[in-house]
Amino acid sequence: MASEHIEHKLALLPDKPGCYLMKNINDQIIYVGKAKNLKNRVRSYFKSSHTGKVAKMVSEVADFETIVTSTNKESFLLEITLIKEHQPYFNIKLKQGTGYPYIKITNERDPQTKITGQIKKDGAYYFGPYPNVYAAEETLHFIQKVYPLRRCNGYQHRPCLYYHMGQCLGACFKTVPPEEYDRQIQRIKSFLNGNTANVKKKLIAEMNQASANLEFERAAEIRDQLHYIKVTVEKQKIISNDKTPRDLFNFYMDKGWLSIQVFFIRQARLMKREKRLFPIVDTAVEEMTSFILQFYNRPNNILPKEILLPRGLPNQEISEILGVPVRTPERGEKRDLMNMAKENAHLTLDEKFRLLAMDESKTTGAMKEVTDALGLPAGHKIEAFDHSHIQGADPVSAMVVFVDGKPAKKLYRKYKLKTVINHADEAASTREVIRRRYTRLLKENQRMPDMIFMDGGEVQMNAARDVLENELNLDIPVVGMVKNNKHRTADLLFGDDDHHINLNPRSQGFYLVQRIQDEVHRFAITFHRRVHAKNSLASRLDAIKGVGPRTRTKLLQKYGSISKIANASVDEIHSLGINRPTAQLIKVSLQGNAEVAKGSSHD
């Protein structure tokens, strides 16, 4: 049921094209969509029943905004810009780049062939992308041997080694006529376009001759070259009689999930396939359109000469935005390939559903159990903190992040505490790390977590709440994780009265809290051990006469541990710019310490 605020806004929606931005209770944009008619589209979210990701998104919407555009095409462009800027949780988001290499013929006075992962508008010729990286590299080596261009760095007054090997046309010591390069480039382009018959015939003859001469290593090398040509250049499936570079998209949708297949047709054959799966909020047509436009908005994704799409997508608008022809095949091999892409999308989604059934209860289901037990609205992101020190020495804090019940390790953060006077003061440690973390998020206008978990009970929980509410004016739920006398997860603390929330110890929600608590503790302890070991080493070096800050830094950067310094020779230590008497003293002092430490480890 829509709130009164939303009902009022729905009544004011215009009958025009544009984009809409759905926001949650924290004013964060959680979904961006486009529509030919904003009034009809936005109202449909609140006036119809939904399931899956749509229902989940609508349940979190507390407000929305609309941006009217002049045309439907403008709404396409605006939507892609807004998704890129805000990275909303419920939108399809694509990873940057394809990750596949291309073979490039450079646009230079003395061109060369090379492997590259970057597509630039530099006038060069690009072939690919190639799904088999190793085979692409071997094919490049083959081209450099059979169709040489330039392999040296350019003019150097004398022939290079590659020239003597027949793999360079001689730019190293002479002016190579452009006509000679042009002839060679035409041969390379013909070869990479699949015209391999003559080269194969020659290689097979050489392989047979090598085998007859009992030169089995040479024969095996030629056999491998033939294999690389087959997997990289030769025809996998003939698609058409012309060699127009094409990308083909098709999809299958079921139960709120969209399965997409992308076929890359190069040199008249199916060169590579990509598959993507997304839970979606909008219609399949809208989400597919958004996917395609984002797909070509990424770096390292070169546009083909033609795009093939299934019936029902806005071909004209996509063509105008991307600047290439967009067609729907009606018959022949291209239609058969379109059907094959849809069948593959169907099979991929069926497999995903089987895996989802096993995984969902452990992740998003567990997250919902936790938020329900706490009486909080649905959330996705938890940031958890823990501190570590040894009798107050070398205090550190660590933060782990779980998104929809799964650890997001790229978001983890480590903190060396700087302002805590009493290093065993858990409240002061908490205040510092919470202040540093969320002041930074505010300055960078970054998205806040839905919940904060503190490993330490009431003291840490209340200290965190104090900083958030009284210093930063933030309203983020703070939850304390409690352990029993066996130092194992017991329950949660929450609310103004710090009351206990007892989760079923056999529930997935309890296991999620346990995973979070164990992970943040592990991360904090591991970080502390490294800091303590480094500081301990620094203090032992400081105790040696003649070792100052600069000498200590040199030793730490070069060796990193007592045992490695102790095992280094006096000459090696001296080579760092340390005078020989001091190097000898370091060696003697640390060698004794290392032997004592080694002996004590066997006690």
Automatic annotation (TrEMBL):
SMART domains: GIYc
Domain of life: Bacteria
Domain spans labelled UVR: 197-232
Limits of the GIY-YIG domain: 15-92
Keywords attached to this entry: Cytoplasm, DNA damage, DNA excision, DNA repair, Endonuclease, Excision nuclease, Hydrolase, Nuclease, SOS response
GO biological process entries: nucleotide-excision repair; SOS response
Example of a GO MF term: DNA binding
A GO cellular component entry from the record: cytoplasm
InterPro entries: GIY-YIG_endonuc, GIY-YIG_endonuc_sf, GIY-YIG_UvrC_Cho, RuvA_2-like, UVR_dom, UVR_dom_sf, UvrABC_protein_C, UvrC
Annotated UvrC family homology region profile domain residues: 248-468
Subcellular location: Cytoplasm
Cross-referenced NCBIfam families: uvrC
Function: The UvrABC repair system catalyzes the recognition and processing of DNA lesions. UvrC both incises the 5' and 3' sides of the lesion. The N-terminal half is responsible for the 3' incision and the C-terminal half is responsible for the 5' incision.
UniProt similarity note: Belongs to the UvrC family.
Summary of subunit composition and partner proteins: Interacts with UvrB in an incision complex.
Protein name listed in UniProt: UvrABC system protein C
Organism: Limosilactobacillus frumenti DSM 13145
